[in-house]
């Protein structure tokens, strides 16, 4: 195995992680996935092997919880030498984070601190962090660029922002900080699935995001979609967001690794938005999904959720100039691939009746 191309991927069995692992393998990287499977399934990795033809040597998996520092360090030692780490692992539901803030701070912050300390001990200092547009909080103007003010409004978003601060401070440290080369990728709203329909978003319990909820309504698992507010200052009154196809997002991570490999000297600790620069409303997404699926999506208008902004979309221009990356897939591909995944896997990776 070419150790210069071995990538450690935390949370690699999850939604964005599994799609990124596909793109990494297809780009010639070997991958070691660390995941505690708390909100994911090892079946996703089995299907990634099936899709890519990767051997168990090229795609390795270790079940480990990042909050267990001893187990994590043993897993990193077993995986070394590692060229770079992509860090997806973390709890990610906004509403749940408000209800269980200490659980989110313990899992996301301590897990990341353990990971950074272990990577440092084992000589891996190229790091790609899975951040989020939630770090911009209530953005005052759109489009949102990387220089927009930061200020998360919920514990989940704060964990992303605090980890960004860890990384900025780590790089600024006079004791080896300049040895670190860090890319912080701020995602907007990932949707869609691999074109094969074999892997996709498989939330445990009630979905927190719009697209899997719409898909579950279409397939008959949910009765109707709740639309939170139709009195926003937008064309149809519903909230507008920047939805990005998960395959485009996955390719953004490959572009980030290539930047670290080929232009390390110009990467200190840099944040990059990954979005499309185009917003769609909730009702536009519903209509597009009805078109893709041929199913009607019943919905009910309910009260706004506190803290939801009317319009959020990215300025993605820096990603294009700095990483040479831009989103290519549009709303039709997002909806068609989601429908293929959901219709062929109505219960996700689980068997019928087990969720």
Automatic annotation (TrEMBL):
Q: What is the lineage of its organism?
A: Eukaryota, Rhodophyta, Bangiophyceae, Cyanidiales, Cyanidiaceae
Q: Which organism is it from?
A: Cyanidioschyzon merolae (strain NIES-3377 / 10D) (Unicellular red alga)
Assembly behavior: Homodimer.
Q: According to its UniProt record, what is one Pfam family this protein matches?
A: GDP_Man_Dehyd
Q: Which GO terms describe its cellular component?
A: cytosol
- Which pathway is recorded for this entry? Carbohydrate metabolism; galactose metabolism
BP-aspect Gene Ontology terms: galactose metabolic process
Q: Which SUPFAM superfamilies does this chain map to?
A: NAD(P)-binding Rossmann-fold domains
Documented EC number(s): 5.1.3.2
Can you give the residue ranges of the NAD(P)-binding domain? Answer: 8-337
Q: Which UniProt keywords apply?
A: Carbohydrate metabolism, Isomerase, NAD
Question: What protein name is recorded for this chain?
Answer: UDP-glucose 4-epimerase
Q: Which GO terms describe its molecular function?
A: UDP-glucose 4-epimerase activity
Report the cofactors: NAD(+)
Q: What class of enzyme is it?
A: isomerase
InterPro entries xrefs:
NAD(P)-bd_dom, NAD(P)-bd_dom_sf, UDP_G4E
> What is the similarity comment for this entry?
Belongs to the NAD(P)-dependent epimerase/dehydratase family.
Recorded catalytic reaction(s): these are:
UDP-alpha-D-glucose = UDP-alpha-D-galactose
């Amino acid at each position: 195995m070419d150790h210069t191309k071995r990538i450690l991927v935390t949370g690699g069995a999850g939604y964005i992680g599994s799609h990124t692992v596909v793109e990494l393998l297809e780009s010639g990287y070997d991958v070691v996935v660390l995941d505690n499977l708390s909100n994911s399934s090892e079946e996703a990795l089995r299907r990634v092997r099936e899709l890519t033809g990767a051997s168990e040597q090229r795609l390795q998996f270790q079940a480990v919880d990042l909050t267990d520092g001893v187990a994590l360090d043993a897993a990193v030692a077993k995986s070394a030498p590692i060229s770079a780490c992509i860090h997806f692992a973390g709890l990610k539901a906004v509403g749940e984070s408000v209800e269980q803030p200490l659980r989110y701070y313990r899992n996301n912050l301590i897990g990341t601190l353990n990971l950074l300390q272990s990577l440092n001990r084992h000589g891996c200092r190229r790091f790609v962090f899975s951040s989020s547009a939630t770090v911009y909080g209530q953005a005052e103007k759109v489009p949102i660029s990387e220089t927009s003010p930061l200020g998360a409004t919920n514990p989940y978003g704060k964990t992303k922002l605090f980890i960004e601060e860890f990384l900025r401070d780590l790089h600024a440290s006079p004791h080896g900080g300049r040895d670190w080369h860090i890319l912080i990728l701020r995602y907007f709203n990932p949707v869609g699935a691999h074109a094969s329909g074999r892997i996709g978003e498989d939330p445990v319990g009630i979905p927190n995001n719009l697209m899997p909820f719409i898909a579950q309504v279409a397939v008959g698992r949910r009765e109707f979609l709740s639309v939170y507010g139709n009195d926003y200052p937008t064309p149809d009154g519903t909230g507008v967001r920047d939805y990005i196809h998960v395959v485009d997002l996955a390719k953004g991570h490959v572009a980030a690794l290539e930047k670290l490999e080929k232009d390390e000297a110009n990467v200190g600790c840099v944040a990059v938005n990954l979005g499309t620069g185009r917003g769609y409303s909730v009702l536009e997404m519903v209509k597009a999904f009805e078109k893709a699926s041929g199913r009607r999506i019943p919905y009910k208008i309910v009260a706004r959720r506190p803290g939801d902004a009317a319009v959020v979309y990215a300025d993605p221009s820096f990603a294009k100039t700095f990483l040479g990356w831009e989103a290519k897939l549009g709303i039709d591909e997002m909806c068609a691939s989601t429908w293929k995944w959901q219709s062929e896997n109505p219960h996700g990776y689980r068997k019928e009746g087990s969720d």
